[in-house]
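Hi Y.,

Following your request, here is the sequence exactly as I used it, all 165 residues.
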Amino acid sequence: MTDRAVAKSLKVVVLTLKYLSVLVLHGPNLNLLGQREPGIYGSLSLAEINRLLEDEGKKLQANVSPLQSNHEGVLVDAIHAALGQHEGILINAGAYTHTSVALRDAIAAVNLPTVEVHLSNIYRREEFRHHSYIAPVAIGQISGFGVQSYLLGLQGLVHHLRNKS
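Below is the corresponding structure, written out as tokens. Let me know if you'd prefer a different format.
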């Protein structure tokens, strides 16, 4: 067979994945990243973390839509609005992790796969940080790896979304 005949007889299958949409929520005080307690939270700004997430999202074929708010109701509204707009949620609720039944209930209500992330290891910190209202309604939780917590969380969420049955 000639090269031309072989090329005609082979069918090339190109796998293109559907782009997913992921809502990334950052809770209170995370707007101060890069300047707030860098020994605990690292030296990257929130804008730099969002850029890294967007770059990682492109590799994973996922659009990342970040939102930061210091206001619980804004975060709850964003979770409600995610229904029909996004396939999953990546959330660092900051201090609201340990206090907000409203965020927990909103995540449970929309029933979108959610991964909780934290820059620091919340279990090696003050006792009040050891409890998460979000963890019971999340598919997973990653903490203690700095900015890698966000990237690992995004990877895990996208993997889950692509492989759920």
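The mean pLDDT is 90.

Thanks again,
Q.
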